[in-house]
Amino acid sequence: MKPVTLETPLQTSFDRVAPLLTDFSLYSHWNPVFPRVTPVGDDGRHDLVVHLPGMEIFHVTASNIVAEPGHVSWQSSLFLPALLTWTFSLHIIAETPDRLLFKQRSEFTGLFAPLFCLALNRPAASGLEELARAVRRWGEKGNVRCLKC
What is the pTM of this model? Predict the structure, then answer.
């Protein structure tokens, strides 16, 4: 199925935005779509609270999590990856020292993907827009203090 993607230019530095994406403990302060990301067990899985616009809040268990400067991604499967896998990623690319491109991608694959795309692509697209606004709000405004300060 075709992924839902969004690219948003930001007038800010890489160092200002990268910690927002990679430090899951900060998500409750700024992230409207994934307000909580909590480790479960020692195998790298995380419980994600998901709040897509127009939908009830739900939980997914994510694995294959990458959280490195400028990049966050994860996968969540329903029973077996062949039935349904949701892959989500965030990237920031420095175009200049004070200009970034914020790239987001949400994709469903597997046997049940067409059904989930039908139900979730519109809320996922709206969620990407909300997430972009939140990153812009925290990243571009010079009067917003660092979340760790």
Answer: 0.88
| Structure-derived torsion over alpha carbons of residues 106, 111, 117, 120, reported in degrees to the nearest 10 | -80
**How is domain 4-140 classified at the architecture level of CATH?**
2-Layer Sandwich (3.30)
Q: Cβ(148)–Cβ(16) under 8 Å?
A: no
Residue 141 has pLDDT above 70, yes or no: yes
Q: Is the pLDDT of residue 67 over 70?
A: yes
Closest CA to 19 of 90, 94, 70: 70
The predicted structure's pLDDT at residue 143: 47
- Please compute, for residue 122, the number of CA atoms within 13 A of its CA located in the half-sphere on the CB side: 5
133 sits in which H/E element: helix 113-140
Q: Is the sign of the CA dihedral 39, 127, 107, 104 positive or negative?
A: negative
